[in-house]
Amino acid sequence: MRRRTVLALSTVIPVVLAGSAAAVATASASTEADSSATSTFPTTIAVPDGFAPEGIAISGVHAFLGSRATGSVYKANLATGAGEVIYTGPGTPSNGLKIDGRGRAFIAGNTGGDIRVISTATGELLASYQVTAAGASFINDVVLTRDAAWFTDSFHATLYKLPIGANGALPASAADIVALPLTGVTITAGTVNINGIAVTPDGKSLLVVQSNTGLLFKVDPSTGATSTVDLGGATVINGDGLLVEGCTLYVVQNRSNAVEVFELDKAGSAGTLTTTITNDGFTIPTTVASFGDRLYIVNGKLTTPIAADVTYNVIAITKP
What is the pTM of this model? Predict the structure, then answer.
């Protein structure tokens, strides 16, 4: 299958997602109104037994979660906790997912080596791209920018760029997916390396976390050159999902059962650890999404074998 490496890319500008603070503000007059609304929302949302959730994105008042077990997508109402499966997966995993302003969920296909795009309104599969052979890569997480969806590969020092054209046009085939090799990253075989991905506060670069080393990297999207983000001696070992709001960075640390919070400079070159969130309800959390004054954190139970009787949930905590 033909893939081409990146020669030149436009500046990375994050899109405004429906789950972002800006979109939340359109549904309520102020942050205070958001806080008042969420005060009546449940703090625990049950996910179907055996579903094995990993990624989460929020659009409007609904959370969307991908399944490591089947690749399906579950839609949950944040106000009531009720939900339903809106998309039945192909039997291979769904990991990270993000939703654009057109109501499309971009889904990382894990070891299936694929990328899928579905409608969050209907559950319809809009596009599917086999980026690598099944088992050859671990397409783990995704972030959306103005003109692309960027995906990490946890087995290789590579990002994949799915270009988004004028009026939201999707690529015609997998041959249009761009492979961006990363320089300055050492990969260890047989484990999860590059994992979560986000955009720097200034919108010019990407951030990726390396789970096995605890390093956070800043990536030049034009060249793939990386530099280590100076975290003042802190590390983000077991780093999984990333969330950037303003200059605040949240790093979910799965097997550490924690979320570390950093204050970044605008360029994303340095950050200061401000707090570490722990919670008795954490059971190997994987990813995080924001709604109003809350963080919604997926309990992935990654160390528990997937089985039909295993229970899963998402817990909501107040932002520090």
Answer: 0.91
